[in-house]
Write a structure and sequence with these properties.
Blueprint: E1 2-5, E2 15-16, E3 19-20, E4 29-30, E5 42-45, H1 48-51
Antiparallel strand pairs: 1-3, 1-5, 2-4
């Protein structure tokens, strides 16, 4: 799954990057302005190569969950 800033990206400035989920810490936004009332809208996508593969197709019907943890850090 890839996470990236949505077209309607909210009020947060900075440099936004698309990231592929992994167990490694990654930066979604860098050089963002300070503030506590900023918003960031995100898009979650499954790349076509995965969505039409056995990674997705052929799985039993049901609800699947994924936990994504976000941490805001001032550097």
């Amino acid at each position: 799954m890839t996470i990236k800033a949505a077209t309607a990206a909210g009020t947060m400035g900075g440099t936004k990057s698309a990231v592929v989920l992994s167990a490694t810490d990654q930066t979604l936004v860098s050089n963002a302005p300070l503030g506590s009332a900023l918003t960031l809208n995100l898009d979650y996508t499954i790349p076509a190569v995965k969505s039409s593969s056995s990674d997705i197709l052929g799985k039993p019907a049901g609800t699947y969950t994924q936990t994504v943890t976000y941490t805001a850090t001032a550097l």
